[in-house]
Amino acid sequence: MPTTPKLSERPRILVVGGGYLGFYVAKNLQKKVKVHGGVVTLVDPLPYMTYQPFLPEVMSGSIEPRHITVPHSRHLRDTELLQGKVTKIDHASKTATVEGVDGVEFAVPYQDVVVAAGAITKTFPIPGLAQAGIGVKRVEEAIFLRDHVQERIQFADNTADEEARKRALRFIVVGGGFNGVETISELQDAARLAAERSNNITPADLDFQLVEAMPKIMPEIKAETAEWVVEHLRSRGINVRLQTSLGDATDKHLKLTSMANDDTKGQVIDEFDVDTLIWTAGVQANPMVRNTDFTVEPRGRLVVDASLHALDAEGKVIEGAWSAGDVAAVPDLSGKGLPDNTCVPNAQHAVRQAKRLAKNVYAARYGVGKVTDYKHEPLGAVAGLGYGKGVAKIIKFPLKGFLAWAAHRGYHGLAMPTWERKFRVFGGWFNQLISGRDVWGVRKVQTPHADFIEAATPKPKPAESK
Ligand SMILES: Cc1cc2nc3c(=O)[nH]c(=O)nc-3n(C[C@H](O)[C@H](O)[C@H](O)COP(=O)(O)OP(=O)(O)OC[C@H]3O[C@@H](n4cnc5c(N)ncnc54)[C@H](O)[C@@H]3O)c2cc1C
Predict the structure, then answer these.
(1) Choosing a second label site near 434 at 20 to 30 A (CA), which of 123, 149, 301, 338?
(2) 402 CB contacts (<8 Å, ≥6 apart)?
(3) Does residue 43 line the site of ligand 1, with CB under 6 A?
(4) 346 lines ligand 1 (CB under 6 A)
(5) Quick one: CA dihedral 322, 327, 329, 332, positive or negative?
(6) Can you give the pLDDT at residue 442?
(7) Which atom of ligand 1 is nearest to the CA of 56?
(8) Which parts of the chain sit beneath pLDDT 70?
(9) Which fold has domain 129-281?
(10) What is the pLDDT of residue 88?
């Protein structure tokens, strides 16, 4: 019989989501709140946060998957941890509804709530996409892709069926933002190495294609640098298809449509079968915020002011309700944010917003310190394009190649939450310098029981010989 967890009776600060924002809010508040007799409670369906900027390096085998996750139970010792999904928040009664791991819903009362439920992959109604594609948002997806791409290369190396071989070696990434560019770069880099090590295929047999609807990739960087990235990817054999969109993916038969402003617009310009379709065309605020009594703006984000306080429909502060990160429309006081003057949804903001938010909640609840607006001048952006290759814009200065890659690793290695995790990531990279790159994929991770089932299934006895 499923039971609901026993909850602390202390006055509660409830943190909804233990990703980048929620993890740091809980970490910064847990001890201080305890001293005042309160409790910080964190609810997340997962028992760990994931450092998403490292997902592409997990796919290429440069980082061990486990190392990019931070276990809540190890690093949030003074936080009440609840594994489950918040399905509803009724701030009028200060109650959140949580669906626990066994599917049973229970109520969690709170004094203050911090909504930190992040974003989910944004898709469009493309026939067959849900069945054919995979996103890049979770470590499980990165592990699958690492193993799957290597497995497809090994399959292609061994098959005599020419059509199946071509399909196995065709890897399509839709979305030319940072995520898509890093994903295709890392995967292709690892795939080239695997192809070089195989018997019957060469890197030239690999068919990597990046599909982007706009005329430019990576909107965060200057046109000139973005063009350099396109040239760089093409020089490596990646087919960058600008002004092209995915129109259909039924049964893994892809139809690509022209988005160019000419006679071809809307027409199917290419079609083929694939085994691998990766979708990285954007994210959207977690739709759970629609099941709350907070204000949600047209793009689906929770409305907050610069102090990260949630606002009601009249723009007045809702006491005891806070939010930031990917799920919220946080005003960007630096004037360097999105066209609607809100912060770009990235980890650079989320970690800083978490620190400000924790101080503001503490000040508002316990009167220590004062509530202050969040303001951060963006430091730029760094992206890895495979081993030893990168592109970056640091403050105003563009960097390309090895230096940009070193900046990417240095920045993200240090930004990885907790020293214990930083050591693991840097340790792995150091190991790679000595032992070489490990792009190997592990087979049957998705079907680990298959061999045992075969072994344990009774077989008909061989007919007795006369
Ligand atoms: C592939 C990739 C690469 C990226 N690279 C960069 C980069 O190079 N630089 C950069 O600055 N940013 C990068 N980002 C963006 C960055 O990772 C996010 O902006 C950041 O993680 C946002 O933090 P968050 O806490 O708002 O959301 P998240 O970190 O996504 O955390 C949300 C949490 O909420 C939990 N949750 C979801 N639903 C519920 C629910 N109903 N109830 C309770 N909990 C829930 C989730 O399990 C998750 O733990 C990248 C993102 C991706 C996907």
Answers:
(1) 149
(2) 388, 389, 390
(3) yes
(4) yes
(5) positive
(6) 80
(7) 1
(8) 1-3, 464-466
(9) FAD/NAD(P)-binding domain (3.50.50)
(10) 97
pLDDT of 464 = 61
pLDDT of res. 3: 67
Q: What CATH architecture applies to the domain 12-121+284-378?
A: 3-Layer(bba) Sandwich (3.50)
Distance set, CA 107 to CA 73, 79, 112 (Å):
22, 18, 15
Tell me the C-alpha distance between 351 and 376, whole Å: 11
State residue 267's pLDDT score: 94
pLDDT of residue 106: 95
Domain boundaries, the chain: 12-121+284-378, 129-281
Give the per-residue pLDDT at 466.
Answer: 54
Task: Judge if the beta carbon of residue 46 lies within 6 A of ligand 1.
Answer: yes
Instruction: Let me know if the fold of 12-121+284-378 is the same as that of 129-281.
Output: yes
As given in the structure block, the two tokens for residue 101 are 């791991």
Q: Which ligand 1 atom sits nearest the alpha carbon of residue 345?
A: 19
340: exposed, middle or buried (Cβ count in 10 Å: 0-12, 13-18, 19+): exposed
Mutate to test the pocket of ligand 1, among 326, 343, 405 (most ligand atoms within 8 A of CB): 326
